[in-house]
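[retry 2/3] Efflux RND transporter periplasmic adaptor subunit: previous attempt timed out, resubmitting with same input.
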Amino acid sequence: MDRKIEKKKWTPKKIAYIGAASLFGVFAIYSLLFANNKSKLNVESDKITVSTVSKSAFTETIPVTGVVQPLKTIRLDAIEGGYVNRKYMDGGNMVKRGDTILQLQNHRLMMDFVNHETEMYRLINELQNTRLTLKQKRFELRRTLSELDFKIGQAKDLYERNKKLVKDKLISEQDFFKFKNDYDQLVRQREIEIESQEFQEQNAVTQIKQLEGTLARTNRNQKMMQDNLSNLYVKAPVAGQLSTIDVEVGTNINAGQNIGQIDDLNGFKMRAQIDEHYISRIYLGLRGEFDFNGKTHELTISKIFPEVKNGRFEVDMIFTKGAPEGIKRGQSSPVRLELGKAESAILLPTGGFFSTTGGNWVYVLDESGKRATKRNITLGRKSPEYYEVLEGLNVGEKVITSSYENFGDNEVLVLDK
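[retry 2/3] Efflux RND transporter periplasmic adaptor subunit: success.
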């Protein structure tokens, strides 16, 4: 009898399909959960710079450009105005104290000097005439008194003799009183003459004193005007180098106008401009250094100019151990200006990566040195050689510090050895 044959549920073919599907599912889940989907870029090792994170003493410095200037510069200003009649020296010449640099002419000043000189001579003549007149009046008084004394003597003699005669009634009282009145009149006349002469002499003495005072003042003014005339010769107040002279023959110059400067070459300093962002951290005595002729030379800030122009302010720096031999005025050099004391910190060498990342992330190599992965970091202060690392890197790790310009947005770099 026929027997019903049951169909098998798990055939080898079905098992093979199920197995294949399971393997594909497992692979898909593994790829989804564990596979590295980060974008990659192959780079050549010899075209990048790899630096090692280290820990050392760190001093924050900023680069500034210092310009060599004389330690002392003397402004050359015109004391008196006028037009340039003669120019004796040009800029760049060495001068000694008292050397004539320019000759000016000022006709108004010359006329004032001549007028004052004429007035002084007039006062001298008037003073001499007043003194002469006083002497003459004194002689006249002596002569007048002499004549009066003679007349008084005669009148007194008549008065005395007639006084006896009138007692004896040998002459009339009328005649006697005439002799007496003549005598009294001459005595009073003598007193009036003396009083008048004393008044005239006091007046003359007062006038002489006034003239002497006026003459003394005029003489002082004349001397000042003579000094002003001598100031038309512009002379070097100190020895040094006439660095600039900004006028030519025929130029009209006003009193007080700057016409140049003289540099004292007995010492030099450096003047630098600093970004106003650092103005609160700059103080006198702050240290800096620069390289010249293969040696490092130390500077300290000696003066701070508080005025800010175009976002920058200026400082003067002096050479701590004297100016280097061979340095010249106007020479510029990069200066490393320290903003604080040295402190221990984790350091990352500077490089071109910063222009792309702004210091927010870097590519860090793994232990094999074949792969570099993007990592977020935080940087702090900066010096010309290093950045201070605040977060994201450990000492000994290796970082690509060259430019990231050609790396795009790739998360991983694969280094080709």
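[retry 2/3] Efflux RND transporter periplasmic adaptor subunit: Residues 141 and 197 are 7 Å apart (CA to CA).
[retry 2/3] clearing retry counter.
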